[in-house]
Amino acid sequence: MLTLAQSLLPGVVEQALPIGLPGRPMLLALDGVATVFLLILFTLGTAAAVTACATPPQATARALPCFIGAMSLALLAADGFTLLLGFEAMSLASFVLVLTHPSEDTARAAKLYLGVALLAGACLVGAMALLGALPGGLDLRFAAIRAHPPEGLRAAAILALVLVGGGAKAGLVPLHVWLPPAHAAAPGHVSALMSGAMTKVALYVMLRLLLDLCGPAQPLWWGVPLIVAGAASAVLGGVRANLEPDLKSTLACSTIEHVGFIAIGLGLALCARAADLSSLAALALGGALLHAMAHGGFKGLLFLVAGAVQHETGTKLFSGLGGLIHRMPVTTAAALVGAASLAALPLTAGFAGEWTLFQAALGAPRIGGLWFQTLICVVVALMALAAGLAAAASVRLIGIAFLGRPRMPRTAAAYEVGRFARAGMIGLAAVILVLGLVPGAFLSLAAPALRALASADAPVRDFGLTVAPQAASPGYAAPAIALLLAVIAAAAFWLIRRHTAQGHRTGPAWDGGFGAAPVWLPFGDPLTQSSAASFAQPLRRILATTLLGVQEDVDMPREADPRPARITVTQYDPAERLLFAPVGRAREWLSDRADRLQFLTIRRSLMVMVTVLILFLAAIALAEQL
Amino acid sequence: MTHGVAYDLSHLLGGIILVLSFALLSQRRLDAVITLYAAQAIVLAVAASWQGWSQGVTGLYVTAAVTLAAKGVAIPSALRRIAHRLNLRRSIEPALGVFPTMVLGVAFVALAVLVVLPTTAQSQAVTREDLALALSVVLLGLLMMMTRRSALTQVIGFLSLENGLILAAISIAGLPLLVELAVAFLVLLAAIVFGVFFFRIRDRFDSLDLGHLDTVGRTHL
């Protein structure tokens, strides 16, 4: 498998395009890192394009090929200009796609998204300029930058800019606020691409700039900001995924969580490489890449499912869904495959990625001293918490949306989606089932990238059938475990079939102790089954009271008042309250001030100009004196 | 010896222009302001022809002639006619008192010297001193625009500022004549536009006090 992958992958050959900046043609190159991400992009792109065949052509439909093309350009770029061009085109195309169904909410989500994308772009342009400031003048070619990696203060500035720029686009805490509304506003197949591929492109940019272009000779603390931001994203995303009132926001919040996992992997790789532990760096980076592949697959699949559900039932709110397993069996099966991966059940794609990342994190205390070991302990605990939260979120997702009874007449009358949408879902589900069963094979696809960046082989053994963190340890042999489980399951099935009575009857769905729906309520009284909010209540009270500032206000009617009691839950994202709201207020204040300049009297505006001129001259005079 | 005389005389002329700028700044009567402006332009023309002679550049004589004809004669007489037609014989009220204006003016000159002398340490002595004088004249022109209420005196402030620019241009050896001519042409255009505006403002408000314009702006808020 390894040799096959090697023979398939071409060496790094730069291809100059006939266009570009004056005298600087745009360069393309296909190396091991780009290959992994291109694989994710094209798999998802195919599924999304097939699904898009089913939807009526919209005015924004042309942006979908542009979106995929821009992402490919960013991944194939071999110079800074091409990379930024692709990255910005990707932001712009996805902004157009978010606006597919224009409404007030969509417009607000798209504006927030565009603002964050602009911030990301500005930071990355700055980082690229700092990277390209070589002794011989500005040179943005990757090969030239690799020959002169940045050092000291310049490298630290690059790290900060890439963390803000790439982190904002990938959805790392605290710049994740745009992600849930933007993903919820876009159509299903677009959300699938944004969550599965676009956040990966942002992670790729971070990987390319920090791990590749900045060179291996960076200090050990370089990975720490990534690890901390990743752990915060994992927990916050996991908690929010359990509390969101609709299907797509839940998936988007879970995207924040998994992006956090991948960022932890990248940070660990940076630290391990700085400590010259190349096999550990390869394990962490391999885990990050494997989890990027797995997450791209299963989150893309789940967003396609969410799009199908929204298309057929007209709602994405949990309060309107339920019982879809009877009406949409194929969609439900796809959702189950995706949710099993989301919950990281063994033998699924999500498990393979998270297992490898956990192995890297558990091996990480070797890297540094006491402080680093303490940090790793906390991070591993938070990762475990996040994995558990993801499992709870996927149970809630399946239990509320697909099991139980419908909560709306239209949901009860839903039909299975058309054959294009089904084909997209089935194809992606097949890919991630295979990924879950033979993760080692997919990990060996990343072998050239690991050799280039961590100078160690992929942690794979037995022709890619076993993922092995250390040569001596047993490792994770998914195919063998699957075979064993299949034999046991077959035996159990055979035994049960042999010793049970023939025939079967259908009982009422479990609905919290209530019996079948009364005859005057043909769809059942929706309030007699637990809702998404009530399902989330324990977690909300335990974890979210301080983290998200959750407030529950109970409006209890007085005696003899027939109106129902109401409970209102309000929650705020900490980043929204502590970062975005103050920045927004500062912007308002500044624009208010700037607005006043417009109405100055003629003499006052002259005075402003003269004062600025005098200050400028005084600064020059002062600089001369010093 | 010739160099010494050229040095002294160009400084003397620049100094006279600067003193005239101060006089402009403190003068309250419109007639006297226009006369002072004309005097400044004539001294500038003399300075230009002196520089033309000492640098041996024929183009500067053209500058001197244009300055004398346009700013020494034509513009002042046009301003006088405007003042006469608009009946602006009475004294004009500066927005800032004479004493604070003078203090600010002296501070501006000090700042100009502090900026120009160290930054141009490598260049010729003539150019350095003259540049400091020219920057002072420009800053005083700006100050005059700031401290006067009437549109007419603001325009004279602007024209005196432009005299400072020309003074800088003639004292730098080797600056193409085209630049000076372009500046002069721009000022001519600006003067025409200002002239038109005077009459429009006067027709509308029966006054050239720009405070009226500001109240208009406020009512449109």
Explain how this protein is built:
The complex is a heterodimer of chains A (626) and B (221). By secondary structure, chain A is mainly alpha-helical. Chain A has two domains: 15-459, no CATH class; 580-625. Helix content of chain A is 67%, strand content 5%. Chain A is built from 24 helices and eight strands. Chain A has a two-stranded antiparallel ribbon. Chain A has a two-stranded antiparallel sheet with strand order 3-4. In chain A, helix 2 runs antiparallel to helix 20, helix 10 runs parallel beside helix 16 (370-401) and helix 14 (329-342) packs antiparallel against helix 16 (370-401). Chain B is mostly helical and 221 residues long. Chain B has one domain (2-219). Chain B is 82% helix and 0% strand. Chain B has eight helices and no strands. The radius of gyration of chain B is 18 Å and the shape is globular. In chain B, 41% of the residues are buried. Mean pLDDT of chain B is 79; it is low at 217-221. Chains A and B meet through helix 24 of A and helix 4, helix 5 and helix 8 of B.
Please give a handful of descriptors for the protein shown.
heterodimer, A: 626 residues, mainly alpha, two-stranded antiparallel sheet, globular, disordered N terminus, B: 221 residues, 82% helix, disordered C terminus
